[in-house]
Amino acid sequence: MFRPKLPTMPQPTGQVTLPAVVIEPTTITPGTPAPPSAPAVPASAPVPSRPTVQLTPGTTLALVGGGSGVILVVGTVLVSMLLAVAVTGASVAVCAVVLHSLLASDAKRR
After folding, report:
1. Alpha helices of the chain — where are they, by DSSP H?
2. Cα–Cα distances in Å, from 58 out to 54, 63, 68, 70?
3. pLDDT tens digit string along 48-73?
4. How far apart (Å, rounded) are the C-alpha atoms in residues 66 and 58?
5. What pLDDT band is residue 77 in, cutting at 50, 70 and 90?
6. Cα Rg for the chain, rounded, in angstroms?
């Protein structure tokens, strides 16, 4: 029950051969100049690297409203977490005081 069960490796079904790699030498001819390449796009028509974003008043208002909503939600969550930690700490402190007084009164009775 407590011994690990190791999987068994399957046996190969046949002869396993690796594919042959053929290396063919290439000749390098030094001193052949490359022809100058012509520009593909004329210089008078610049191509924009990315699309431009148009901000209308409605879009700006939506962005500001969405950002404000996110900030309010995150702030509410953080404040509620802080309140939960404070309540937990206070309850632990009350429990510690009660236990201390119970143990102290028990020690006085003996």
Report:
1. 57-109
2. 11, 9, 15, 18
3. 677 777 888 899 999 999 999 999 99
4. 12
5. very high
6. 39
